[in-house]
Amino acid sequence: MTGGARVGDDRVTIPFDGRRIDIEIAWVRPEHAHRTDRPLVVFLHEGLGSVSMWRDYPRMLCEAGDLRGLVLSRYGYGRSTPRPHDEKWGADFMHRQAREALPALFDALEIGPGRRHGKPWLLGHSDGGSIALIHAASFPDAVAGLIVLAPHIVVEDISVRSIAETRRAYLETDLRTRLARYHDDVDSAFWGWNDIWLDPAFRQWDLRPLLPAIACPVLAVQGEDDAYGTMAQIEGIHRYAPRASLLKLARCGHSPHRDQPARLTEAAVDFITTHT
Length: 276
Hints:
Pfam families: Abhydrolase_6. By secondary structure, the chain is α/β, with parallel strands linked by helices. The chain has nine helices and nine strands.
């Protein structure tokens, strides 16, 4: 444990941006946490996600593959430290999560090469998938593999349109009330994500130059009915990341783990087993 980090039963205090923040965590199948011979999967949530919004999927996957799992809520989400309402995130917000916050958390929990829990697998959804890609490109020797669900590598028009519609729903429907069940400060979670995605400056955001640096195997998954991105996202990963494989799912929207959990689990377990 380094950098003044502190670990509790469901919180880890880490240094970030010149201060100390709390990160909500939950171990999946904690009774098996000591089995360091089994792969560890770290679940990275979507732009409005949290520990609780994964529901039962982490356990479903870990039981199917006899895996260990760790779920976390990023800064600003779930039961983690909320983002102050006057703090505006920049276009590098996912890079900062991948290069600063996630390494600090892994240091605190002894995750990584030569440490207690070894190299992790990262399973990221949407923004969490993008963060997984950035982390693996930035620390190519530190990750065993990636499974990215509906990740973003560029900003598409379809993404901006759907995120603008989500903003309308947050202001005019019961979406805010429904999301409030999953976040200590729902406005912190929503506006941190929504404001930057709809900022015109964010249209230049592009992960493609980073992808060739990813050394680990990557399974990139996209639903054919995704309202937040097209197949160009995972096809770009396949083009630029050296060891990428694709899974395209019919009858599936932006959340493969909700829309096609059995098919995704089968593919993910097979991919992890093959590359372990």
